[in-house]
Design goal:
- With 463 residues, the protein is an alpha/beta fold.
- It has 18 helices and 6 strands.
- It has 3 domains: 77 residues; 184 residues, no CATH class; 183 residues, TPP-binding domain (Rossmann fold, 3-Layer(aba) Sandwich).
- It starts with a helix and ends with a helix.
């Protein structure tokens, strides 16, 4: 394949990547956007392999078949509730791939005597960022999957150690650029950066993972772009830059949704320390009102407007299909049903949207925070399934709270609030939620899926 044809294919692939990203901006066009981006990546990979004469067409086709088979098995086997940790693993694999490719290119360039400063700087950057992405993603996977504790891991001198290890990685990168023939320093750099990635992610609580995942996604894109400079591959530079930029923008959006800085998310260890605010006993004692499926069904029987507020508890219980079934019943009885989705509900950006889409919930019924909040005071019943801090009114009332100023869903303004939770356990911020003991709140203590199914049965019996 000629150089000109290859670059034309790269341009086409780049356009498909951009159109894919645009499509991913809305649930209704997300599937098409994902397909366009996948086709673009297929074109780029095939063009690169054939242009460089790396492998034969037989190997390319065999690789496509094997990759499609693995992807199909993963798509069918992985539950939607496991998507956050799968995304974390994908980010990690992207970083690891960049590290290995850049390392191999460095060894070849040193042997051929073709190194230059641009290539060496890009190689050092790839080793640093790629290894941080890989190890950080492994820790994120462990926290999301429950194999590691989701609580922040803090210890004395942690910030000092992070600074020393980070500066050590940068220093090794500078040394590598000045002494490229000593390729062993590249792998030492990778090892130090691997440790740095672990140290960066362990202080982050499990509920802050939406931000960490988007940040690691951005890192994997930057590492890929740096690898493009190592290989002088324009397609890799473009694709990596798109991923890096989009991941960084999404990270900023997530931080804004929590009214917190990125540094606060990464280093504050929110939820690890006991706050000086009121205790759970002070907030809840003698004020909690429990309810049952039959009582909730009675309230829903006369409700004109019902809003479901999904949280991580819905994901853990895999209750999204039951929620949709209950919503269908209520709509058949004449009620208007909507879903209030907070930007950081769950464990990855768009987590609730993905789960509800899997249950075939109409996209138009998914309302973001700014759209749904003005109408909560006109809502007869708000049913909260496993959410906590994203509906905690303390964010509005207590300037000393860990979540002070965080935009929340104004669930407390609904006429009746039904909180479906296993217990009164706090959210990631580690503080009690006065919504649980509010005059208009009823607590339904149960697994999310079990509770919703019991409500469905009660509604059917009352019909």
């Amino acid at each position: 394949m000629g150089f000109a044809i290859t670059n034309i294919i790269y341009i086409v692939a780049s356009v498909l990547f951009i159109l894919g990203l645009k499509g991913l901006a809305h649930p209704r066009t997300a599937v098409r956007g994902n397909l366009l981006a996948s086709v673009g990546m297929l074109l780029a990979v095939v063009a690169t392999l054939t242009d460089r004469g790396i492998v034969s067409w037989t190997v390319i086709i065999a690789g496509l078949v094997l990759g499609a088979l693995i992807g199909t098995v993963l798509a069918l086997k992985i539950q939607m509730t496991g998507i956050p940790e799968l995304v974390a693993v994908f980010n990690g694999f992207g970083g690891a791939s960049s590290v290995l490719v850049a390392g191999g290119a460095l060894i070849l360039a040193v042997a051929d005597g073709t190194t230059d400063n641009t290539m060496l700087i890009a190689t050092a950057a790839t080793g640093l960022i790629g290894a941080v992405t890989f190890s950080g993603s492994l820790i994120a996977f462990g926290k999301l999957s429950g194999k590691l504790s989701g609580n922040p891991w803090l210890f004395p001198g942690q910030q000092v150690l992070n600074a020393i290890v980070g500066l050590g990685g940068v220093g090794l990168g500078v040394w590598l650029v000045m002494n490229p023939e000593a390729t062993i320093f590249y792998w030492i750099l990778v090892g130090v950066s691997f440790l740095f990635g672990i140290l960066l992610v362990i202080p982050v609580g499990g509920a802050d993972m939406p931000v960490v995942i988007t940040l690691l996604n951005s890192y994997s894109g930057v590492a890929a772009a740096a690898t493009g400079f190592v290989l002088s591959n324009n397609m890799l530079i473009i694709a990596g830059s798109l991923v890096g930029a989009s991941g960084l923008i999404l990270t900023q959006i997530m931080c804004k949704a929590m009214n917190r800085s990125l540094a606060n998310v990464l280093f504050a260890g929110v939820g690890a320390l006991v706050t000086d605010g009121p205790s759970a006993d002070d907030v809840y004692a003698g004020k909690i009102k429990t309810t049952s499926a039959d009582e909730v069904a009675m309230m829903l029987d006369g409700a004109q407007r019902v809003v479901f507020v999904p949280g991580y508890g819905m994901a853990v219980a895999q209750a999204q299909h039951a929620v949709h079934a209950l919503a269908n019943l209520l709509e058949q009885n004449g009620a208007t049903v909507e879903y209030a989705v907070h930007p950081v509900a769950g464990r990855m950006p768009g987590h609730m949207n993905v789960l509800l889409a899997e249950a075939n919930v109409d996209y138009d019924k998914l309302k973001d925070m700014d759209e749904i909040n003005p109408s909560f005071d006109q809502t007869d019943v708000a049913i909260v399934i496993g959410a906590n801090d994203v509906v905690n009114p303390v964010a509005r009332t207590d300037p000393n709270s860990p979540i002070a100023g965080m935009p929340i869903l104004d669930v407390d303004k609904a006429r009746t609030v039904v909180m479906i939770k296993r217990s009164l356990s706090p959210g990631y911020a580690g503080i009690p939620n006065p919504l649980f003991s509010a005059d208009n709140t009823l607590m339904f203590f149960a697994d999310g899926k079990q509770a919703v199914q019991e409500i469905i049965n009660a509604v059917k019996e009352a019909a």
